[in-house]
Known about the structure:
Elements: H1 2-17, E1 21-27, H2 31-37, E2 43-45, E3 53-63, E4 67-76, E5 83-90, E6 96-103, E7 110-117, E8 120-126, E9 133-139, E10 144-152, E11 156-164, E12 167-174, E13 183-187, E14 195-196, E15 216-218, E16 221-228, E17 236-245, E18 248-257, E19 271-274, E20 277-284, H3 291-307
Antiparallel strand pairs: 1-2, 1-20, 3-4, 4-5, 5-6, 7-8, 8-9, 9-10, 11-12, 12-13, 13-14, 15-16, 16-17, 17-18, 19-20
Helix pairs in contact: 1-3
Amino acid sequence: MFLKLKEFILNVLRELTVSSNWNIGFVQDSIDSIMSQKHISSVKWMKHSFNDRFFADPFILSVDEEHIYVLAEECKFKNPKGVIVELVVDRKTYTLVNRTILLDTQTHLSYPAIFRENDTVWVYPENGQSGEQHIYKYDSASRTLYDKNEMISEPLADSTIFRYNSKYYLFATKYPNTQSDTYIYVSEKLESGYALLSESPIYNRHNVSRSAGDVFIYKSHIIRPVQNCTKRYGQAVVFNVVNFSDGLCSEEELFELHPIPGRYGRGLHTINIYDDIIVIDGYGYLYPVIGPVLFFIKNSIKYILNIFKI
């Protein structure tokens, strides 16, 4: 009886707090401002009417005068299995005006990374639970992903590709240790043929290794954003400088970006730049007024129940 009562109380509080309510936001700072000030000062969060799901891991697909087209992970609170969606966001109001499911599999999907080459857009989302990394072509006319190819037969987390000296370098962490030990795979082709550059990880700072967005170049420096989850998931994003030398690769930390205070100020773990637009994600309470109070009550009840071993 006590176990059923405990489960009931915690489920009710969990429903009301929803402490992992992620949303995507559009940064109002320029990349020059971020790199010089080492922080983000202003974000316009996407407005939408969904209260049963969150959106995270945004990658900018394209931009026109009226809209921003974003690929993201969508995940319902009651069914935590992510799907990949295309979101159409109004550039003036940052309101979600259309949503299309691009990919839904039997296992969790997230991090819909994009690679553009020869007028072709490729999408290679994370699907580590399947044990494989796949890549798809994107068709803008039908808004579909097609021509699925297996890149690597390993359970990888947040794979991120960067082309350097005519080779494709894929940065990823591995399941089950997805927050540590970044490995690099290299191939002559984008779609397949990847092999480890080294058996040893190139970056193995504990809980600060997993990719947090596309690798980009800033003033001749190669920058790879990584997640800092040392104290909690979504603690911060770290900018690492990538160095290629004598066929090897290494990284060194540049600086850290922290969550932006406000509605979604409890977490940050993705940042991407395309066509001078910067997109991030952040998380906060689904009910920002009562959420923190209920979150405190929930943790207090759990603490008391654990003391009395109920």
